[in-house]
Write the structure tokens for this entry.
Amino acid sequence: MDIKIADYNETETRMFINQALSKAGWEFPKNMRLEYKITDGRVHIDEDDEHYRDKALFADYLLFAPNGSPLAVVEAKRNSASDGTGIQQAINYANLLNVPFAFSSNGKNFEFYDMSNAGEKTIGMDAFPTQKELWERFCLNKSYTPQQLEIINKEYYYDIEGKKEPRYYQRIVIDKVIEAIAQGQKRMMFVMATGTGKTYTAFQILYRLLQSSNGNLRILYLADRNILIDQTMAQDFKPFGKKMVKIEQRTASQSHEIFMSLYHQLVQYNLPEGAPQPYEQFNRDFFDIIMIDECHRGSAKANSEWRKILDYFSSATHIGMTATPRDDKDANNSNIEYFGKALYTYSLKQGIDDGFLAPYRVTKVNINIDSQGYKLNKVEASCVEEKIEGDFVYQSDLPRKLGIKQHYLVAAKRITDFLEDIGPMTKTIVFCDEEIDAFEMRKALIHFNEQRQVENQNKYIMRITASDAEGKKEITNFISKLVPVPTVVTTSQLLSTGVDTKTVGLIVLYRQITSMTEFKQIIGRGTRIVEDHKYYFDILDFRGATNLFFEKDFDGEPEPPTRKGSGSKKKKKTSGTPVLKPIIDGNGQEIKIDSETRMVLGKDGKPIATEYSDYTHQRFANIFSSLDDFLQKWNAEERKQKIVDIIENEGINFAELRKLYPENYNGRDIFDIICNIAFKQPMLFRAERARRVKERKLLDKYNEDARRVLEILVDTYAQFGILAFEKQDALKVDEIAAIGSPVYIKNTVFGGIDKYKQAIKEIEDTFYQIA
């Protein structure tokens, strides 16, 4: 006998969807995935500096084309939902995934939407299209020729052992590049933020192209640093094996398919007149594909030596990839002028929002003489053009031209204090103007960390620059999460790009930065997430470089600041006011930190410079028209989390308020914080509100078990607040669990769920009764 059910929930509805898909030939895992994870969920930092994530984004079903590209999204809804419910959600996922078809189903029908022409129709459960039918429809919409399909049809590389597969945005890049090549495009570029897997994406592109060529394709992969070549060959490109060779000599074997080379291996300077360049060992049409890593760094400049390589192999398809494209006003220096508009851009902001990149917090430090000026003595004036004794110089000349030791010391002391706060073994890069600055900063940092330096093989602090051979040997140890030292490194240019510095939890900006390209590259040193080790990082800015956050072409933003650092698993300390240690220079001038500014994040995704309490007051006015309006909404809402969600969606962060104003808001209820900031009302502590319940003997009327349950819940409120009081698992704490399960407590101890809710409501009304 069949069981009669009036309504199937979403999980039960999937049983009908599974049957319909199976009948059409869709099988897991052959060409279908269930609960396909799209994003990881953005990382946030709570008031205890522990990380948490937003909910990850999942598609109920993702259907794949014969080549492994996503072909259709299917969203399931409960049986009682009307036909078409969920199709807009499916369309949103299809837009994000760049998928051509979207479906939704309530178990009675499918709603079908073609993304290419906005065609929509309802079809029966037995009429779901097969993979062949959907693929042919897609190819028809695209007007692909048989020759183009020979390239497009080739499959991805699947790492079964490592279980690694492309993320959604990587698939989009791969498919767009393959399609552009199939359609005959000769120059193209894709943009992916640092840490989002450019070289892995490049590997997948080249792998699919090689499958379509039957061994007749020749590929040149160009980079400008040895580590970029060696790292790529040893990691992402490793499956190519013997198909791949590194060009290290003036002549190279031409019997391979993939040639990895530095620019300067192919272009040499000071050759005798008429001597051929190394790239001329190859015929002009030898290479079919040239892939240019970090293509913003000069290969596309019309007047560069490196450009000669691209011009010589002009018949090949040129693919540029970068995290920071240049669109200079001078067309001769523009990536976009050479490669064209990016086929796809995956930005730093999107990577942070999706939870694939680490968010960051910013602390700006102002040293007094940087803004007020430094008065020159006679010797110092002789080091600066057109200056005499008594003249003032400002930040652009400090400390590089003068080498003011006290300036380094003040900055080094603040860096040391910051590290004490976030954890002294936090991997740190201090970016300086020039190598001599990196040398002086290293000495200044050691001055404040002598014991720690000695305890760590005298390698706790090191300089790593292009000319420092010993420092460069330590790069591998620095970027390893398993090797603790070196921990703090000073540098100029060497570590600003190309090195996979996943473990860095603090970036110190002690150099002038005016280039957005350079700024993004430096920020990218800290954006990688290392699971169970690092989820966010800090930026300590001494030079105002973070003003670039406000430029219109910046696409990432800081997490609201706290003072405890990088999310690494380390001992936490309670931060206080930084020690603003003044240091007196030889002229009797006091050099010290004047002020610090911590950036907080506004609703528009940009840092705000206003006082955070003023900012939140303005945002509250957008939500509640008056105190009465707030009280009515607060008291009417059964679960206060819904009110908090509305407020936080407006850009207000309660954890941040407690951190920035601990003396005002620690121990206060969210209710009091809102009333105080929005309506200037006096506040009570949570403990005072909890005491009301006991003073009014509100619990005396309940039986012993019920009274004990409510006493524990009231204590929970006093300690943790209303959200903890209302949590569904509040009844699962050990003391209450000893009485019985949540179902037993509600139904037996209280005599029914309605009576339990009534008791909770009466307590909350007592908490929030206005005197």
Observations:
- The chain is about 35% helix and 15% strand.
- The mean pLDDT is 86.
- The longest helix spans residues 405-422.
- The CA atoms of residues 255 and 507 lie 44 Å apart.
